């Protein structure tokens, strides 16, 4: 079945460690996105990519990094520079830059 | 309006009631307005993507309208059912997709 796969679903990290969240899609979508959700807040855009080998910062990119070496994959690295990384992370993709988003099931990161 | 704002933040209705939510968004550099439904333990799913001023879209008992000149969209649910309980998100596309905080709907049987 076509869709978006995020892994891991749950992740625990010690302070000071980098961690990479995986996002893979087999929908042949050009655009991919990473959002973060905190309790009581909406989805906030971290990074997005509209084409392979290109990506742009969203509203809260500090402390995060991404790569887009393949169309299907858009991994997100949460670095030790991210001051408050405990959150729920959602990856999404769309056929074009205006089309509806298709979301993964999310990854919940907890920093101990 | 610089942000996407949704109201109310939460809503509790009885089964059979009709309800509506509001989404306000920046009217400049507008490309599209999205509505998503996010049920607990599931991924958000698209309800509507609207681009033209005056657009009206309908899916079963749910419909939405769009006013790009004044920067607002309404989502209507007719005859709410318990399975409609979810968080409803709107998002404005001005080159990137910016989400509102959502409206959480609880429908009591």
Q: In summary, what is this structure?
A:
The complex is a heterodimer of chains A (112) and B (109). With 112 residues, chain A is mainly beta. Chain A is 0% helix and 50% strand.
Number of helical regions of chain A? 0
Catalogue the unreliable spans of chain A: none
Q: Largest sheet of chain A, described in full?
A: 7 strands, mixed
Estimated helix fraction of chain B: under 10%
User: What kind of oligomer do you see?
Assistant: heterodimer
Mean pLDDT of chain A: 93
Helix content class of chain A: under 10%
- End-to-end separation of chain A in angstroms reads 35 Å
The main β sheet of chain B shows up as: 6 strands, mixed
Major protein interface: A-B, 23 and 24 residues
Query: What is the first-to-last residue Cα distance of chain B?
Result: 37 Å
Order of helices and strands of chain A: EEEEEEEEEEE
Structural class category of chain A:
mainly beta
Explain what the structure shows.
The complex is a heterodimer of chains A (112) and B (109). Chain A is built from no helices and 11 strands. With 112 residues, chain A is mainly beta. In chain A, the strands form 2 sheets. In chain A, strands 2, 4, 5, 6, 9, 10 and 11 form a 7-stranded mixed sheet that branches. Chain A starts with a strand and ends with a strand. Chain B has 109 residues and is mainly β. Chain B contains no helices and 11 strands. In chain B, the strands form 2 sheets. In chain B, strands 2, 4, 5, 9, 10 and 11 form a 6-stranded mixed sheet that branches. In chain B, strands 1-3-8-7-6 form a 5-stranded antiparallel sheet, with no helix packed on it. Chain B starts with a strand and ends with a strand. At the A-B interface, strand 5 and strand 10 of A face strand 4, strand 5, strand 9 and strand 10 of B.
């Amino acid at each position: 079945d076509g869709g978006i796969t995020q892994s891991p679903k749950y992740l625990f990290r010690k302070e000071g460690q980098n961690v990479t969240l995986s996002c893979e899609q087999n929908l042949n979508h050009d655009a991919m996105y990473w959002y973060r959700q905190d309790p009581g807040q909406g989805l906030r855009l971290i990074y997005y990519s509209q084409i392979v080998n290109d990506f742009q910062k969203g509203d809260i990119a500090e402390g995060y990094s991404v790569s887009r070496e393949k169309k299907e994959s858009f991994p997100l690295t949460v670095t030790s520079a991210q001051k408050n990384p405990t959150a729920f992370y959602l990856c999404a993709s769309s056929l074009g830059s205006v089309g509806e988003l298709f979301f993964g099931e999310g990854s919940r990161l907890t920093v101990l | 309006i610089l942000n996407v704002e949704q109201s109310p933040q939460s809503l509790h209705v009885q089964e059979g009631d009709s309800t509506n939510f509001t989404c306000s968004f920046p009217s400049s550099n507008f490309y599209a307005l999205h509505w998503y439904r996010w049920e607990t333990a599931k991924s958000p799913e698209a309800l509507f993507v609207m681009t033209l001023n005056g657009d009206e879209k309908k899916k079963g008992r749910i419909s939405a309208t769009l006013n790009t000149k004044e920067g607002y969209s309404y989502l209507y649910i007719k005859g709410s059912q318990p399975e409609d309980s979810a968080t409803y998100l709107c998002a404005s596309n001005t080159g990137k997709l910016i989400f509102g905080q959502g409206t959480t709907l609880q429908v009591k049987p």
